[in-house]
Amino acid sequence: MLLGAHVSISGSIAKSVDRAKELGCTTFQIFTRNPRGWRAQKLKESEVEEFRRRRREEGYTVVVAHMPYLPNIASPKQDSWRKSVSVLIEELRRCDALGIEYLVCHLGSHLGKGVQVGIERVAKAVNEALGKVETGCVLLLENMAGQKGSVGSRFEEMREIFARIEQPDRVGVCLDTCHLYAAGYDIRSEAGLEETLRSFDENVGLGKLKVLHLNDSKGGLGSGLDRHEHIGHGHIGKEGFRRIINHRHLRDLPMIIETPEDEKGDYSYDLSVLRSLRQMVSEPHEVPFEGHSRVRPLDAQRCQDLQVRRRRRLDAPPRGGAHVRIGGPVQVRLLPLGGGGDGGDAARELRLERRLRLRR
Ligand SMILES: [Zn+2]
Ligand SMILES: [Zn+2]
Q: Domains in the chain, start-ordered, CATH in brackets?
């Protein structure tokens, strides 16, 4: 399961890896810089190298970055829109340098000029930024909570944005559960979750969905409030999250919490709640998205479980006293019985190999 939190880069960007590891995260999200200002300090080469080395050492396959707070790529005001696009370009470059897979960007606010204006501005910003930067980092547009003036809280609006994007392969979506609920998508109920995903698929396409932000919602259904709550303490609730994180279309996505740290709990609390809600699946692994030719890897937890089961079955020495040694998940070696033997080794090895093949 790819599950993590938005962790701090305080001290150095590489320290985020330590923080993620300490929390037991299998993926994580960062700001590449202080998120409260317009200007960023230039990345130092040593800092880039240290981050790349640390994440490689810890085996993080997916790292997500989040845009700072101030930019608004939907802004109708030319100067603030221009500044926002500059930051977007700069962040794409920083992510590329750091080897970060996804950059999440809020869709923003049209500041009263109407959704249609916002849609045009967002599409123009994305096209301009991607036109200026060659990068492997995929830009993810995050759904909004439906606040007054917001663009892209409805999938129909996202559809219109995607229709205007010139390089759609470089753009995906990050869905925030709190924002979905606040915008009126009833993902708390089973029927509501199915309907939400159906509508997303119809308007945007499930293949575009790359990351989930898991936050419970302080605000009610359709409240338009972007107020994150601890998992299980808000309107979505534990049962809601159980369905979300185990859903066949969502379970293999990287999932990031952005929950508050207060007297009610912290990241470790929310992560442990989510882990306890995760169900093991026994059915054959399913390729989650239509039109996806790539088979997704098993998640780490399930790989571990399979290995443990395999080991349990194989650790007992077979009758006849030969010692079987298991190296890694699927390798099996028989040690020679010593002296001429009777050909039993080879036969046993064959049988074992066949059994393993059947299990794989
Ligand atoms: Zn979010
Ligand atoms: Zn939010």
A: 3-277 (3.20.20.150), 300-359 (no CATH)
